[in-house]
Amino acid sequence: MFDVLLLNADYSPVRVLDWQRAVCMLLDDKVMRVADYNGRHIRSASLTLPWPAVITLRRYSKHRGRLRFNRTNLLARDAYTCQYCGYAPRNAKGQPIRTNLTMDHVVPRALSSGGQVTLPWNGKKVPVSSWENLTTACRSCNQRKAARLPEQARMTLRALPRRPSNYEGVRLMFTRRDVPEEWKDFLPVAA
Ligand SMILES: [Zn+2]
């Protein structure tokens, strides 16, 4: 409830914080208030302040704003769609059914050495489990492909897996939540 949008010093969105964390950063003077929730206040024994809606870092941080690498974000990158057959399981409300989707190592673990695999399409070495070697697959495609390269299994990827850009990362972060009015001016895409 009444989360706070953190922006980098260039006003690019970084992530969403709970208000407690945001207040700590304000009190430490690491951030500035950009927009408040109209008419709302945070009150404690020692202070009352307007409830921040959007805050910005005083100093630019290049490490912030990277989309975390995990299953949720990976599924979102692939629009909850099997990247081999295009199956996109949805419930009656049109929401994705995540349990019907799996993570497929495009270059199988069996072909890794020292925890890394070489991507056949660009020769790059990447960790077995990384943005660039994991893709979304339905159960049947995952089983069919098994521990083979897509080519060996005669399967074609709809898109090569890759790390989302910061811009895409931000877009993905906000497709899964309600966006308060106060944030909209600061997000790249109308949510
Ligand atoms: Zn499939």
At the first level of CATH, the class of the largest domain is Mainly Alpha
Which small-molecule ligands are present, each listed once? zinc ion
H/I helix tally: 4
Strand order across the biggest sheet? 2-1-4-3
Radius of gyration equals: 21 Å
Properties at a glance:
191 residues, alpha+beta, DNA Binding (I), subunit A, four-stranded mixed sheet, two-stranded antiparallel ribbon, 4 helices, 8 strands, elongated, binds zinc ion
In short:
The protein is an alpha+beta fold. It has four helices and eight strands. It has two domains: 4-64, no CATH class; 71-163, DNA Binding (I), subunit A (Orthogonal Bundle), CATH 1.10.30.
Descriptive notes:
The chain has helices at residues 19-27, 71-77, 139-145, 166-175; strands at 4-7, 13-17, 31-43, 48-57, 101-105, 116-118, 125-127, 134-138. The protein is an alpha+beta fold. The protein folds into two domains: 4-64, no CATH class; 71-163, Orthogonal Bundle (DNA Binding (I), subunit A), CATH 1.10.30. The strands form three sheets. The protein has a four-stranded mixed sheet with strand order 2-1-4-3. It has a two-stranded antiparallel sheet with strand order 5-8. Strand 3 and strand 4 (48-57) form a beta hairpin. The relative contact order is 0.17. The model has no long low-confidence stretch (mean pLDDT 90). Bound molecules: zinc ion.
